[in-house]
Structures are given as structure tokens and as C-alpha cells.
Amino acid sequence: MIENPQSDVVLVGTTPVGGRVQQDVAEAVIGHWQSLSWPAELLSLTVYVSSDGTSVLTYAQWSSQEALVRSLKETGGVSDTAVITGTESPAPVPYRLYRAVRGSAVGDPAPVAGSFPVAFFDAEDHQAARDFVDGLFAAEEAGEGDERAYPGGISANMHISLDGTRILSFSEWVTEAQAVAHIEAVWEPLLKELGGTGLLYRHYRSLFPAA
User: CA 96, CA 11: separation in Å to the nearest integer?
Assistant: First the structure.
């Protein structure tokens, strides 16, 4: 779902639910997407909901950075979910997938992911962001080995924002319990040390262009 050879950039947004019902927020975003014509460069739109009920995440894959930039300038367009989620929600951020690694403890083809741990980190610029990701993987391989044979671990997908100031870690796990076990053993210390923020999400719904 995350790796798509046609995808050049992705637009990722998070919406705090606040006092609203999480499912209502997710359905409102989906309804907005379905009410509009899609640019030819828009490949998919996906909604995830956090397991704690506090957040809705959107992940849009685009085949063209230029088309995404044009879309972001269109008030009420397919990339403008603020008309639904409210202006208090953070603006969505465009990213590009930088590195992806797969776990070796799952079969091929990989099973359907049931849990998606997501974490965000700040960076000074593109070089600092690349160094952060490369150093993170190097430290993991030094401590755990490069096979990444974590039970239930399907993939880890590291994105860097187009302006180089944000890093997005988007992982895929078979079950939430397996993801939580890995987070508690590996990720929680990193989040505390590096100042990142993270939540567990579940897939809610994906939309694709009409055939």
C-alpha cells in the first residue's frame, strides 16, 4: 500500500478529532474526496484512524510533484481537507519516500497489515534528514542485525518532507500487539531521546481513480 513505483510524492495530514466522533471525521474526508474530480496524477487517497480515537491521518499518493503543488493552491480542492477538518488542524505536508526496508519474519507475499505505527521527527534540512534516517537504520542493524526478523514486521517506510524539515516513519505490521511489543522495546526509547511524536493507526478506507 505504501510502496508504489508510480508514486513520486505523498501528501500526509493529521487531524485531531477533539470533541468529534472519529468515524464522522473520517467519513467527512472521504465524502469530500468522492465529491470532486481527481487530477490524473492522483493515484490513491487513504484514511487511517488512530487506535486511541484521537486522530485521523490522510495519505495521498501522487505521480507528479508539480500536480500536487497545483492541487495545494486550489481552495476547496481534493487536497484542501481543511474545509472538512477545520482550520485548527495542521496543514498537510508533502513528502517523498526516502528509504524502505522489509521485515524477514513474514511470508512472501506479505500478509495484510493490521497496524500502522506512525512517527514524526523534525530536521534542519534535507542533508540532516537523510543523515538521521541513515543513522537510525545503521544503529538498528548494529544492535539487531540487518535481517529485521521482527515477528509481524512487514515494512518500515521513511519519508522526508519536500522542504527537508520533517521526517515521517510509516511502518506496517500484521497485528497491533506485535507493533506495540516492538515499539516498547525499540521505538519508545528513540522517541524520548530524539523528540519525535507517534501514534498507532488502523487502515480505514482507500480510494482509487475510477476505471
Answer: 9
Q: Are 121 and 169 in contact (CB under 8 A)?
A: yes
Alpha-carbon span 210 to 57, nearest angstrom: 23
CA-based max dimension of the chain: 49
Distance between CA 97 and CA 3 in Å, rounded? 8
**pLDDT digits (tens), the chain, 211 positions:** 688 899 999 999 999 998 899 999 999 999 999 999 999 999 999 999 999 999 999 999 999 999 999 999 998 899 998 878 776 788 999 999 999 988 887 777 878 899 999 999 999 999 999 999 998 888 777 766 667 778 888 999 999 999 999 999 999 999 999 999 988 887 777 667 777 778 999 999 999 997 6
Q: What are the grid coordinates assigned to 18, written together?
A: 477533539
Cα 173 vs. chain centroid, distance in angstroms?
13
Classified as helix, coil or strand, 106 is coil
CA angle 168, 170, 173 (to 5 degrees): 160
Between CA 135 and CA 133 the distance in angstroms is 5
> Helix, strand or coil for residue 24?
helix
Identify which of 45, 42, 46 has the alpha carbon closest to the alpha carbon of residue 8: 42
